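Work Package 4 report. The design task specified in the project plan requires that, given a folded chain encoded as structure tokens, an amino acid be chosen for each position. We show below one input record used in the internal validation round.
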């Protein structure tokens, strides 16, 4: 059975759309009729994405670490002038890196945190504004199972993802004044560029992989839930977290 959403005439902003989960979500939203502003740093990959749905996908290169409030405001202002106010957005930008307590690279740890957390706060500050978003807009942020479960040498990533999840509840209470909703999605391991060219069995271990009763995740295993949360069918859901784990947590 196929479930198809109709987002015709709706407008969304996807941050971290040049790859992985964000890219898959951008494609599905565009194919469901939405106008999508796809944001990332890699212009070439953004162009490839635009070529998939040239009339629906707009692109903008932006580094969320450097972007100031004015940059976000300008970006929203331009998109809103072109297509109208947004109906929601997805914040999927994130990087991962090892930060062992004894010998971690502080600059890397800050980049991990800034990309997932402070970038998201800057995004939401503009996105939730009445002048940029229609009443009842829906936002989805990418947290991670790593927010709740320890992986050695991953404290910066885990803390950043936990911060995203924790911030959603107070933000939900603020943005309800415009009837906006916001939720997090927390995947376990999904095969994307984020983990680079690792050979999963060798580097993660066959026994760890075997905990995924449904196999490792693919971007399309996550995007379905994101589209649902963006849709009116999720109109009674806000401030919640949704783990997606392929059976990993059953052990
Ligand atoms: N893959 C997993 O196993 C997994 C599991 C749980 C949660 N997550 C979370 O899901 C989200 C998406 O991950 P993914 O697996 O789809 O990763 P991905 O394929 O590496 O995509 C990450 C996206 O973030 C963008 N990005 C990174 N740094 C940025 C910056 N400074 N400014 C603007 N954009 C930036 C990248 O675009 P550019 O390179 O073009 O800038 C890319 O579009 C992340 O937040 C991640 O933490 C992933």
């Amino acid at each position: 059975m196929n479930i198809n959403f109709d987002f015709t005439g709706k407008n969304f902003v996807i941050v971290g759309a040049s790859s992985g989960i964000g890219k898959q979500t951008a494609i599905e939203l565009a194919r469901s009729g939405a106008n999508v502003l796809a944001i990332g740093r890699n212009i070439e990959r953004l162009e490839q994405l635009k070529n998939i749905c040239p009339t629906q996908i707009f692109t903008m290169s932006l580094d969320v670490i450097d972007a100031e409030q004015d940059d976000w405001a300008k970006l929203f202002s331009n998109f809103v002038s072109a297509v109208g106010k947004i109906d929601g957005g997805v914040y999927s930008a994130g990087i991962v890196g090892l930060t062992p307590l004894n010998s971690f690279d502080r600059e890397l740890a800050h980049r991990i945190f800034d990309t997932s957390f402070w970038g998201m706060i800057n995004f939401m500050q503009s996105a939730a504004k009445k002048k940029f978003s229609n009443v009842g807009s829906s936002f989805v942020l990418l947290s991670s199972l790593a927010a709740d479960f320890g992986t050695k040498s991953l404290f910066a990533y885990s803390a950043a993802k936990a911060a995203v999840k924790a911030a959603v509840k107070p933000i939900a209470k603020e943005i309800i004044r415009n009837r906006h909703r916001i939720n997090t999605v927390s995947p376990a391991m999904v095969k994307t560029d984020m983990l680079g060219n690792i050979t999963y069995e060798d580097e993660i271990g066959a026994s760890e992989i075997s905990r995924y009763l449904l196999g490792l995740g693919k971007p399309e295993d996550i995007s379905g839930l994101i589209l649902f949360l963006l849709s009116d069918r999720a109109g009674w859901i806000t401030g919640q977290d949704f783990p997606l784990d392929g059976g990993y947590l059953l052990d």
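Residues 16-22, 40-42, 45, 62-65, 92-95, 115-116, 142, 144, 187, 189-190, 192-194 surround NAP (CB under 6 Å). Validation will be extended to a larger panel in the next phase.
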